[in-house]
Fold this protein.
Amino acid sequence: MALNCMASALGQIVVTERHEAINADSLRRAFDNSPYFGLYKDNYFIFGTSVGQKPTRENSNVKFQISVAQRLTKSTLPWHTYLYLFYTQKCFWNVLEESLPMTDLNFNPGIGWAKHLFVKDRYIGKLMLVVEHESNGKDGDASRSWNRITMGANIMVDPQFMVHGKAWIPIVDGENNRDILDYCGIYQVGTSVMSANKRFGAAVILTKRRGWNLNYNTVVELSYRFSNNQNQYFFAQYYNGYGEGLLDYKQFHSEFRIGMVIKPELFSDY
């Protein structure tokens, strides 16, 4: 997960062609003066179908995500931290069916703190503490809802390689999804790499489901940037596991989709 609403103002400062060290005070001022509103997680629109099955109208769909962040403070909080509002919305849209139904719509607002990290005047990433809610806005038997206190970190090992992880304290309030941790997990780890010319990217995200077995929900993503002057990428995503959407969180999915993604400038949040 990540706060990249300041990224377009900082991208050229933080990641230079020579990977030179940047004065930490100057970089903090750049964060302070960056735009208050911007991207949070990846924003994408992708279409695909189930892997290993014959494509049909029922198992082929569009998945799209909209994710933004609003910085609420300048660097006046203790330990030089920032306070943010987040909002992510994920939708599954069966565009091949007659009425084009949106079968699952997940709402994920949150509020949290970010602490940007520096080592020897080099920006290496950030720590996050976020209180978030996720639900599908339905009632009755179709209602799904839970809350999390999430602690995470994104670390830039170098300008082309990032690792991330987060764990959460769950507060499950949905009557119909008391077992959601068995499917949507208890923590997440992952890594992403980018080519030296910033055109090609790849990411792997693993979410550990509750239990002692090696049971992970796995996401593999590939991206290709059309131009260095744009922030639009060709995007391919493979999802394998449970909990892709809240409505059918108990149902196993193996899905491959392709489309477009708009990414934050420094690194993506998950």
Observations:
- Residues 152 and 258 are 28 Å apart (CA to CA).
- The longest helix spans residues 24-33.
- The first strand starts at residue 37 and ends at 39.
